[in-house]
Automatic annotation (TrEMBL):
It comes from the Bacteria. Belongs to the D-isomer specific 2-hydroxyacid dehydrogenase family. This is D-isomer specific 2-hydroxyacid dehydrogenase. Residues 36-313 form the D-isomer specific 2-hydroxyacid dehydrogenase catalytic domain. Keywords: NAD, NADP, Oxidoreductase. The keyword Oxidoreductase applies. One of its GO terms (cellular component) is cytosol. Residues 110-282 form the D-isomer specific 2-hydroxyacid dehydrogenase NAD-binding domain. It comes from Caballeronia cordobensis.
Length: 314
């Protein structure tokens, strides 16, 4: 397949993409690396777009080096690592890939919850290490009848709720405003945590939600409560979470995102049997990542050829 339009300006790629996504981007766009533009000032001056993923930083200094930059297209929902206001001031459009990953993230959320309740990582180890012949594995807990509180009832939050309902789970949520939903609404995460057996963080990242799940929320969740974070690592105060786990203030946690990624092997979070860890794989399916890459390319091509982005955030 040829590039969509051979007159398109060159595109700077920031970060790595899965192989299937990279192949699609290579077919659609003329991609260059940071090393390429560092070695060629003329190329740097012609860069018209940035293609990136939501777990990579795009800083102001980089944008200032690209005088022809018109669009930053991130493959993912989050755009908290892009200086959106600065881009807006310079007339640069920022796009993301909403909705495409909702199902995949919601599926993983259910998997993390079940892994916690039924102690699946420990059960797997129990069999592999030959412990089964020595006795029965400890009993787990059922999801049926549990109260699940969702912090942030956006697109992904609603998908999680839809998948929880068939399990016979009672659902409530917190957010800035009450929505027309058949679920109870709480004004603050503390109130929601006090009601919940399982607290699920599903809100955007950024300064407004930094450490939204703090010591007060964890204390409200209580000694039998479980925390699940599939939002952004910044949403949970990890130091407070570690302290809560150490003093048994909550029963456990399942985390797909962290304040600093990748999580270091020596992190205290790695020491708890009652914690399930995943390497930020919420959207990491072949189908989802390919669709996200396709929309990322579509946004760049559409904006550079028509002046209109398909899914702009600014």
């Amino acid at each position: 397949m040829q590039h969509d339009d051979l007159t398109l300006p060159p595109v700077l790629q920031i970060g790595e993409f899965p192989a299937i996504a990279q192949a699609l981007l290579n077919e659609r766009l003329t991609l260059h690396s940071l090393a390429d533009i560092d070695a060629d000032d003329a190329l740097r001056a012609r860069i018209g777009a940035i293609a990136t993923r939501s777990n990579y930083d795009i800083d102001i200094a980089l944008i200032e080096r690209l005088p022809s930059l018109r669009i930053i297209a991130t493959s993912g929902v989050g755009f908290d690592r892009i200086p959106v206001e600065f881009a807006r001031e310079r007339g640069i459009v920022v796009t993301n890939t909403p909705d495409l990953l909702n199902a995949a993230v919601a599926e993983l959320t259910i998997g993390l919850i079940l892994a916690l309740l039924r102690q699946l990582p420990l059960a797997d180890r129990y069999v592999r290490e030959g412990m089964w012949s020595r006795g029965a594995f400890p009993l787990g807990s059922s999801l049926a009848g549990k109260r699940a509180g969702i912090v942030g009832m956006g697109r992904i939050g609603k998908e999680i709720a839809r998948r929880l309902e068939p399990f016979g789970t009672e659902i409530a949520y917190s957010g800035r405003t009450r929505q027309s939903l058949p679920f109870e609404w709480f004004a603050t995460p503390v109130e929601l945590a006090r009601w919940s057996d399982i607290l699920i963080a599903s809100c955007p990242g950024g300064s407004a939600t930094r450490h939204l799940i703090d010591a007060a929320v964890l204390d409200a969740l209580g000694a039998k409560g479980l925390l699940v974070n599939i939002a952004r690592g910044s949403v949970v105060d990890e130091a407070a979470l570690v302290a809560a786990l150490q003093r048994k203030a909550i029963a456990g946690a399942a985390l797909d995102v962290f304040e600093h990624e990748p999580l270091e092997a020596g992190s205290p979070l790695c020491t708890f049997d009652e914690v399930v860890l995943a390497p930020h794989i919420g959207s990491a399916t072949h189908e989802t990542r390919l669709a996200m890459a396709r929309l990322t390319a579509d946004n760049i091509v559409s904006f550079l050829t028509t002046g209109k982005a398909l899914t702009p955030v600014c």
